[in-house]
Amino acid sequence: MENVGEALQSLLAVTLVAAVAPLLLGLLPRLRVPQVVLLLAGGIVVGPAVLGWADPTAIEPLADLGLGFVFLLAGYEIDQRLYRQDAGRRALVAWFVSLLLALGVIGLLAWAGLVRAFVPVALAMTTTALGTLVPILRENDMLRGRLGGYLMAGGAAGELLPILAIAVFLGIGNRFVALLSLAAVVVLAVLLGVAARVLRPGGRLDDIISERQHETSQITLRFTVLLLVLLLAVTERFHLDAVLGAFVAGMVLRRWAGRNARVLEEKLDVAGHGFLIPIFFVYSGMTIDVRAIAAAPLRLLLFFGLMILIRGLPALLVYLRVLSLRERVQTVLVTATALPLVVALTQIGLRNGTMLPENGAALVGAAVLTVLVLPTVAVAITRPGPDTGRDVVARRPDEVAG
C-alpha cells in the first residue's frame, strides 16, 4: 500500500504540472513558448533534482505508454504520399547529408577521445522530434500551406530513419534478431494494410466500427490502445522496437480509419494530448541529470551546436529553390529539434557501458535545449505573406507537398 501511495503522490505531482502548463500559457499570452517547454521544466521542478515530489520510476509505465502515443500520433500525421513527391525526396537527401556530416564530425570527436559511444552519438545528431513538434506546429498553423508539407516530410525522415538504424544496429544485442524484429514490423504493417482493404469497405465489420465508435463503446480508440499496449508489452525489453512499432502502427491506422479518419484523430488527440503525452514529457524532465549538466556545461553547448549544424544546416541548401530564406531557417530550426530518440540512444549507450556518463547527460541536456529554444524561435519568425495566407486557409500539408 505504501508503494501505491507513493505512485499516486508522484502521479498527482505530474498531473498538476500537466494541468497548470496550458493554464499558464492562457494567463500569460506574451509567454510565447511551446507547451512542452513548460512540461519539461515542471518535470525538473517536481522531480528528484529540485523538490522531490515525484519519483520517475513510479510513473514509468504510463510514461512509456505516453511515448508510444507520441510516435503513434507522429506516424498517423504522415501522409505517405509525401515520399513520392518533391518534399519527401528532398527530406531523404537532407537526412543522408546529415548522416554523413555526423559520421565525420563525431568520428573526429571519437579520435580526440571526447566521445566513446560513436554510433549512438552520431545517430543522435540526425534525429528530429516530430512527435514533440507536431502539437507545437499544429497550434501555430505551421502544418498548413507549402511549408507544412516540407516540415512534415523532413521531420518524418529525421524520426523514422534513425529508428530503423537504431533497431538494426543498437536495439537488440543479436543483429539477426534485430533484423527479424524489423522485418516482423514491416510484415505486420503490410498485413494490416491488406486487411484494411479486404475487411473494411462495405462489410459487417465496417458497420460495427462505425456504429460503435462513439459514446460508451469507443471501439476505434479501444482497439488503438490495445494495439499500442500489445506492442509495448511484447517488446518491453527492447524499447526502441516498440517505438518503431508505434510509429508504423500510426501510419497503418491512418489507412485503416478510412472514412472515420477524422473522428479517430480527434479521439487519439483526447487520449494522447489530454493525458498520456503530457505525462511522458513531465517524466522526461524528471529524469534529466541537472547536476551532471551543471558540472560540464561546455559539453552541452557543444552538442547543442552540433545538432543545429549537422541536422539543421543541410536544409539551407537542400531546400534552396523551393522555400524562401525565412522558411529554410524555420526548417533548420524544426528539423534540428530532438528529444525522445536522444533519450533512448543515451540509455542504450549508458546501459552497454560505451557512453561516458557526462556525455549522456550533456546529450539529453542539449536535446532538451533544442526543444526549449528552436521551436520557439521558429514560431516567433512566422509571418504570413500575401501568398501563404491563402494557402493556410485553403490547403493541407498532404495537398501541397511538391
Automatic annotation (TrEMBL):
<feature type="transmembrane region" description="Helical">
    <location>
        <begin position="270"/>
        <end position="288"/>
    </location>
</feature>
<feature type="transmembrane region" description="Helical">
    <location>
        <begin position="36"/>
        <end position="55"/>
    </location>
</feature>
<feature type="transmembrane region" description="Helical">
    <location>
        <begin position="12"/>
        <end position="29"/>
    </location>
</feature>
<dbReference type="GO" id="GO:0016020">
    <property type="term" value="C:membrane"/>
</dbReference>
<dbReference type="GO" id="GO:1902600">
    <property type="term" value="P:proton transmembrane transport"/>
</dbReference>
<feature type="transmembrane region" description="Helical">
    <location>
        <begin position="176"/>
        <end position="199"/>
    </location>
</feature>
<dbReference type="InterPro" id="IPR006153">
    <property type="entry name" value="Cation/H_exchanger_TM"/>
</dbReference>
<keyword id="KW-0812">Transmembrane</keyword>
<feature type="transmembrane region" description="Helical">
    <location>
        <begin position="300"/>
        <end position="320"/>
    </location>
</feature>
<keyword id="KW-0406">Ion transport</keyword>
<comment type="similarity">
    <text>Belongs to the monovalent cation:proton antiporter 2 (CPA2) transporter (TC 2.A.37) family.</text>
</comment>
<feature type="transmembrane region" description="Helical">
    <location>
        <begin position="242"/>
        <end position="258"/>
    </location>
</feature>
<dbReference type="GO" id="GO:0015297">
    <property type="term" value="F:antiporter activity"/>
</dbReference>
<keyword id="KW-0472">Membrane</keyword>
<feature type="transmembrane region" description="Helical">
    <location>
        <begin position="117"/>
        <end position="137"/>
    </location>
</feature>
<feature type="transmembrane region" description="Helical">
    <location>
        <begin position="362"/>
        <end position="381"/>
    </location>
</feature>
<feature type="transmembrane region" description="Helical">
    <location>
        <begin position="149"/>
        <end position="170"/>
    </location>
</feature>
<keyword id="KW-0050">Antiport</keyword>
<feature type="transmembrane region" description="Helical">
    <location>
        <begin position="61"/>
        <end position="79"/>
    </location>
</feature>
<feature type="transmembrane region" description="Helical">
    <location>
        <begin position="91"/>
        <end position="111"/>
    </location>
</feature>
<feature type="domain" description="Cation/H+ exchanger transmembrane">
    <location>
        <begin position="17"/>
        <end position="379"/>
    </location>
</feature>
<feature type="transmembrane region" description="Helical">
    <location>
        <begin position="219"/>
        <end position="236"/>
    </location>
</feature>
<protein>
    <submittedName>
        <fullName>Sodium/hydrogen exchanger</fullName>
    </submittedName>
</protein>
<keyword id="KW-1133">Transmembrane helix</keyword>
<dbReference type="Pfam" id="PF00999">
    <property type="entry name" value="Na_H_Exchanger"/>
</dbReference>
<dbReference type="InterPro" id="IPR038770">
    <property type="entry name" value="Na+/solute_symporter_sf"/>
</dbReference>
<feature type="transmembrane region" description="Helical">
    <location>
        <begin position="332"/>
        <end position="350"/>
    </location>
</feature>
<keyword id="KW-0813">Transport</keyword>
